[in-house]
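Hi V.,

Quick status before I head out on leave. The structure for the redesign project is tokenized and pasted below; the design run finished overnight.
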């Protein structure tokens, strides 16, 4: 800091300082001329050379009236000169003078009488070219009017960032009289704004001289302390013609309308983005819980800090056949909860729980009326009507929950539940725009949730039917241990027609069956049940495997264009022989004791239902300790790998330390089936054991 800057303000004001050329007086070129009592020129300033055209050598000692005034004006000049000298009264005005080149110029004069220490009297004339003076006066008047009448706020601050000038517009913006600004700093006048940033910008402009244009500032002033305003502020360094820095000027334009329009446009863009995101993310599966979770997650953090999806338990159970009552409690299941950040409020809304809400609770009112419920400013009583219980209300209060919105989930004119939204860190309360967005999201998601619950209901029915048609615990068999496994397809896909069966036959024989009806849903499961029943009937006739498949083929031809694949084998424990036939099914695996597993080389045959193609029976040894593995295509087929590659993987999986039969079924499922695979799986493993002594074939 320099010496001048280190002085206190008043002391610095009293200190003399030189002023470089280029000031206002230099701009006006004010001339000074002194006359004695006879009207002779006795003093001549350098500026007079420019105003009158004569040098000092040419002017000093000359009678001013003769030198500077045309003849027609000389009598008037002498009269005015005499009045000034005799009365001491000053005279001011414009007067035409004769320039050295003979031309006439209008000069602005200020004449006054002087008295020296000897008592001598002189006349002082201060003169400036009137055109120059008029130009400066016009510029000053224009500047003053522009500043005072401008619709934008204008201020001038000195090098210490203290106000020197404030126009009426800025006076109105700041809500403080202009006189009260003078000598104050911005922080004294604008306590609600980011003063550090403002003063930093002012100092930068003072230091560099580079203007800062259209700086965006948002905040409040004393003129309107309850609402935010936006201003476009520009800063300029003010200098004289001699480059002396006077201070920094600021212009302030209120752009609050533009700011609000930009905010609304941004909110509209964000709403569209949320809706577009929801269109892409919600309803990607036919799982009710997954769809609910997708809805909750798409709402945070753009719409809410915490979101939850609560569905009426009666809706999920398909018990809600009458319109919602206007009174009485409702039982909800929390299907999904999503939070923008870890918070105890989300913990208090744990997904999967059942909760009963009385008729006075807000979520109950939402589903009873089918209308959104908005609590812009949620207090303690409101939180108790929102949360599940007192502990939940306390968790909401601890998390800072201050605004609540519940929107009904409506599909096909049925209220399924509610979409709950909470704000804590987001300081803004829910408004009508938020309600519109939440309603749009809920409407889209409700259809997906409703589709998912209907699909899940149909799928559960088909799966129940299919499981009911499959055999229960295998019977006690002679010379054979068996284990089986059935795994339905994913919940988002319908069940198929996979089946297996273990059928005890006369003479201690056992029929082993694995099949797959092509198609899915209840019809496929029903067709599978008919084929299984027919298989059991034909097995009792003690037919060869190829004959059993021939009869099944005829039956399948009449089953509404269904076709199926099937493996049918009969094992005789007394001679350890297995006879087998294949109807278009994947080859079984023979894992002989002490040997590597291999695929049985069987005639493939045509699927059941094609008709007119013969089947063939193949016999092979199945000695004690040997295993026969039958399976459906859902175990091995994928879209990414060839079937040969997958069959080799199956053999490699079986080529290891032997596990118990049940464990082997699970191991195959775990090793080969990807969680996203969309097909049923049936596995049947039979291991030959020594036949009991004394038993013979009949």
């Amino acid at each position: 800091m320099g010496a001048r800057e280190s002085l206190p303000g008043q002391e610095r004001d009293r200190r003399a300082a030189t002023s470089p050329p280029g000031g206002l007086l230099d701009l006006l070129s004010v001339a000074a001329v002194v006359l004695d009592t006879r009207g002779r020129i006795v003093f001549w300033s350098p500026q007079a050379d420019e105003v009158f055209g004569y040098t000092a050598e040419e002017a000093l000692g000359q009678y001013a009236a003769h030198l500077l005034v045309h003849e027609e004006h000389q009598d008037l000049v002498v009269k005015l000169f005499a009045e000034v000298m005799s009365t001491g009264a000053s005279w001011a005005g414009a007067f035409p003078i004769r320039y050295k080149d003979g031309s006439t110029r209008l000069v602005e004069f200020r004449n006054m009488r002087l008295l020296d220490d000897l008592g001598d009297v002189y006349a002082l004339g201060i003169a400036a070219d009137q055109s120059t003076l008029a130009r400066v006066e016009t510029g000053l008047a224009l500047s003053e009017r522009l500043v005072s009448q401008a619709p934008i706020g204008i201020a001038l601050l000195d090098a210490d960032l203290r106000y020197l000038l404030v126009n009426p517009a800025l006076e109105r913006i700041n809500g403080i009289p202009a006189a009260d600004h003078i000598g104050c700093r911005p922080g004294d006048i604008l306590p609600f704004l980011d003063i550090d940033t403002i003063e930093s910008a002012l100092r930068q402009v003072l230091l560099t001289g580079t203007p800062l244009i259209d700086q965006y500032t948002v905040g409040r002033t004393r003129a309107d302390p309850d609402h935010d305003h936006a201003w476009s502020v520009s800063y300029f360094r003010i200098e004289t013609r001699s480059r002396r820095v006077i201070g920094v000027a600021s212009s302030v334009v209120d752009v609050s309308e533009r700011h609000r329009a930009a905010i609304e446009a941004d909110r509209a863009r964000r709403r569209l983005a949320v809706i577009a995101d929801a269109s892409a993310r919600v309803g990607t599966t036919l799982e009710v819980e997954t769809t609910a979770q997708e809805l909750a997650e798409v709402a945070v953090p753009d719409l809410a800090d915490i979101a939850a999806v609560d569905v009426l338990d009666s809706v999920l159970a398909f018990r809600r056949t009458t319109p919602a009552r206007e009174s009485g409690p409702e039982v909800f299941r929390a299907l999904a909860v999503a939070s923008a950040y870890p918070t105890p409020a989300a913990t208090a809304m744990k997904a999967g729980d059942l909760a009963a809400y009385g008729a006075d609770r807000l979520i109950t009112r939402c589903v009873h009326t089918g209308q959104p419920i908005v609590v812009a400013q949620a207090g303690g009583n409101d939180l108790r009507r929102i949360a599940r219980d007192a502990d939940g209300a306390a968790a909401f209060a601890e998390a800072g929950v201050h605004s609540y919105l519940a929107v009904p989930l409506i599909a096909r004119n049925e209220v399924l539940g509610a979409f709950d939204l909470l704000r804590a860190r987001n300081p803004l309360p829910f408004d009508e725009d938020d309600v519109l967005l939440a309603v749009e999201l809920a409407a889209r998601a409700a259809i997906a949730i409703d589709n998912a619950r209907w699909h899940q209901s149909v799928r559960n029915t088909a799966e129940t039917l299919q499981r009911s048609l499959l055999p229960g615990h295998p019977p006690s068999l002679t010379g054979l241990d068996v284990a089986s496994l059935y795994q339905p397809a994913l919940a988002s896909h319908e069940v198929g027609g996979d089946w297996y069966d273990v059928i005890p036959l006369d003479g201690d024989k056992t029929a082993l069956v694995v099949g797959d009806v092509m198609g899915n849903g209840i019809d496929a499961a029903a067709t599978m049940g008919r084929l299984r029943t027919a298989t059991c009937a034909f097995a009792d006739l003690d037919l060869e495997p190829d004959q059993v498949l021939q009869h099944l083929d005829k039956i399948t031809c009449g089953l509404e264009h269904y076709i199926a694949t099937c493996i049918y084998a009969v094992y005789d424990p007394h001679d350890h022989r297995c006879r087998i036939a294949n109807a278009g099914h994947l080859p079984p695996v023979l894992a002989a004791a002490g040997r590597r597993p291999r695929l049985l080389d069987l005639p493939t045959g045509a699927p059941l239902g094609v008709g007119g193609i013969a089947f063939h029976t193949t016999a092979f040894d199945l000695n004690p300790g040997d295993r026969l593995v039958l399976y459906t295509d859902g175990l091995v087929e994928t879209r990414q790998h060839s079937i040969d590659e997958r069959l080799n993987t199956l053999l490699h999986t079986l080529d290891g330390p032997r596990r118990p039969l049940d464990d082997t079924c699970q191991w195959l499922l775990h090793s080969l089936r990807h969680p996203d695979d969309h097909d049923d799986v049936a596995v049947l493993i039979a291991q030959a054991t020594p036949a009991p002594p004394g038993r013979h074939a009949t």
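Above is the designed sequence. Residues 176 and 222 are 7 Å apart (CA to CA).

G. will cover questions while I'm gone.

Best,
W.
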